[in-house]
Amino acid sequence: MQYKTKGNKIFNVVNIFILTIVSLTCILPFINLLAISFSDSAAVSAGAVGFVPVDFTLSAYEYALKGGKFLRALLISFERVFLGVGINLILMILTAYPLSKTRKQVTGRSVYMVYFVITMLVSGGMIPTYLVVTGLGLKDTIWALVLPGAVPVYNMIILMNFMRGIPEEIEEAAAIDGASPFQILVKVLLPVLKPALATVGLFCIVTHWNDWFSGMIYMNNPNNYPLQTYLQTLLQSFEQLLRSSQGAQDIQALLVQMDARTGRAAQLFLGAIPVMIIYPFLQKYFTKGLVLGSVKG
Amino acid sequence: MKKLKRQWQYHLMLLPGVILIFIFAYIPLYGVIIAFEDYNPALGFSSPWVGLKNFEYIFSQPAFLRTIWNTFFIAVAKLIGGIVVPVIFALLLNELVSNRLKRIFQTLIYIPNFLSWVIMAGVLIDILSNTGVINQFLGIFGVGPVNFLGNASIFPWTMIVTDIWKGFGFGTVVYLAALTSIDPGLYESAILDGATRWQQIRYITLPLLMPTIILMLVLALGNVLNAGFDQIYNLYSPIVYQTGDIIDTYVYRLGIEQAQYSVGAAIGLFKSAVSAVLVLTSYILADKCAGYKIF
Fold first, then answer.
1. pTM over 0.90
2. Which of B245, B273, B261 is nearest to B36 (CA)?
3. Residue A65 burial (CB < 10 Å; 0-12/13-18/19+)?
4. Domain assignment of residue B6, yes or no
5. Is residue A231 part of a domain?
6. What pLDDT sits at residue B211?
7. Which of B104, B169, B276 sits opposite A122 (nearest CB)?
8. Containing structural domain, residue B241
9. What are the pLDDT digits (tens) for A19-69?
């Protein structure tokens, strides 16, 4: 497909140039953030920090971890991810398996399917959901964060499609040996499904980790905030600080603001780390999930 | 008989999911009834019936009518940009000879997609501030500091551009997958006929990419009233309500912050009804235009 003409060579160079610039815009803001978090606050407010830390210091991280608010929120987030993704996986496996069967094998399969799919199309909206969760007395408990989204229907359908791709002979052999559906699911299917479970599991991890909104509306006590909600309140207070200190000559306020900027950068960066760590896996499994998710049935 | 004996286990497996979906999806669905009531926490979903009073109230509010237009404008612009930009990038990436470069670029443009809007907002507030990197860069060309987040006429565009920026990596991967499935033989014979690179894109690549583009467009139509709550809530401020307040942020402030549950639910119901019509229309269109059946 390649020609060695001059025009093509120029095109290739320009193409790589454009792609490089755009790709860099996707990563440079985060490098900037990282550099700010490791820099001295005086250099940051002087606007001297680009993509390399100036006057390297860890004080922003000390500031961030001081007082324990950050660590407490981090622990709640971890608890939420473990509990939430565990519940997600169990429920997805349990629902996807019968739904991957035909109407003949499971009476009422289509009714179940419609029952689940409808919830993807219409929802009660923010207020009625809020009232139900509040009415059940789940406010200020971890259950408010994990139960409302306990059955991720879209991911469940992806998993269902994975299950349909497994040759039926495997199950039949086990059924002839007298295994029950539960035994077949646990002993025969689960080992084969590991890559599929990794795919949907990773999506659930990202969803739980990134969600800040349920923490904000369901937790009255800031001590119960998961990390993203805590970061969100930090962001709001920082903005207020910025607005209130504009034009102010108060040195003290200015110093607080300077420290806040590096400290905030450090906390934002820490909040992004878990996603960055699983990112290579996400990327690997994402295309798979995409392809399988489109094979609807 | 043996069949029935085996079947009960399947239904038992479905039971926990059915119950949880019933509690957290179907009861709230029934709960939209409070849009026609004067909600009283002591009475719950069976509060006094007031008919269409809440709807009359919201449609008499200029602030609400404003949010409809803002939502529509921001969402449509995001929808168009969210298709054009990834298609262009998929085409550019597809022209790369080196597979390694292709993979590196894909990895980089895909990162913002997985970070939460809280983190992204933190980064954006920093780089878009008056002393931030972007304004420093613009300063080189003598363009004065632009108030990206505090100027009501610029704010919607900031939302549109940053949303496309965050999400275009996803679309690019989708279109790239469609591009790699095009038969290379088509290009070979085109080259034999003396077709230039541009002609190959114009007459082979784009027409073959069209079904995927139409499909993505049609599927996005159902989202026209979702202008991006997470993004806007984390970046807006009262100064930009005029152009930046959308239906979802309005429902949140009214319904949850001010506890006007019935009014909030009425707006939510209005939005769901319009969305449901759009979703149905788009699914019918997807079937007719692209031959794609969702169910």
1. no
2. B261
3. middle
4. no
5. no
6. 80
7. B276
8. 63-290
9. 999 999 888 888 888 888 888 877 777 777 778 888 888 888 887 787 788
The CATH number covering residue A140 comes to 1.10.3720.10
Same domain, B209 and B181: yes
The residues near B9 (Cβ < 8 Å, ≥ 6 apart) are: A180, A181, A182
B140 neighbourhood in chain A, CB within 8 Å: none
How many domains does the structure of chain A reveal? 2
Q: How far apart are CA B88 and CA B95, in angstroms?
A: 11
B119 close contact with A: CB closer than 8 A:
yes
Nearest-by-CA chain B residue for A117 = B295
- Domain membership of residue A235 (yes or no) is no
Structural domain total, chain B: 2
Asked if A93 and A60 sit in the same domain, the reply is no
* pLDDT on residue A84: 97
**List of chain A residues whose C-beta atoms are within 8 Å of the C-beta of residue B187:** 1
Are residues B95 and B26 part of one domain? no
Tell me whether residues B252 and A126 touch, CB distance under 8 A: yes
ipTM of the complex: 0.85
Give the integer Cα–Cα distance in Å for B263 and B34: 9
Partner-chain residue, chosen from A125, A133, A279, that has the shortest CB–CB distance to B111: A279
CA distance B229 to B116: 12
> Is A151 domain-assigned?
yes
Taking Cα atoms as reference points, which of B167, B131, B119, B152 lies closest to residue B237? B152
Q: What is the pLDDT of residues B37-65, one digit of tens each?
A: 999 888 888 888 998 999 999 999 999 99
Cβ separation B264–A50 shorter than 8 A? no
Which of A106, A228, A286 lies nearest to residue B118, judging by beta carbons? A228
Residues B146 and B278 occupy one common structural domain: yes
| Neighbouring residues of A59: CB distance < 8 A, sequence distance ≥ 6 | A40, A41, A262
The Cα–Cα gap between B13 and A185 comes to 10
* Contact call for A101 and B10, based on CB within 8 A: yes
Q: How far apart are CA B54 and CA B64, in angstroms?
A: 12
- Of A161, A148, A10, the C-alpha closest to B28 is A148
C-alpha span between B232 and B251 (Å, rounded): 13
- Provide, as residue numbers in chain A, all residues whose Cβ is less than 8 Å from the Cβ of B180: none
Per the structure, the complete domain to which residue A285 belongs is given by 6-66+247-292
Q: Is residue A232 part of a domain?
A: no
Residues 50-79 of B with CB under 8 A from A: none
DSSP letters along A91-116, please?
Answer: HHHHHHHHHTS-TTTSTTHHHHHHHH
**CB–CB of A29 and B133 under 8 A?**
yes
**pLDDT digits over A182-204, tens only?**
999 998 899 888 888 988 898 89
The verdict on B140 and B185 lying in the same domain is yes
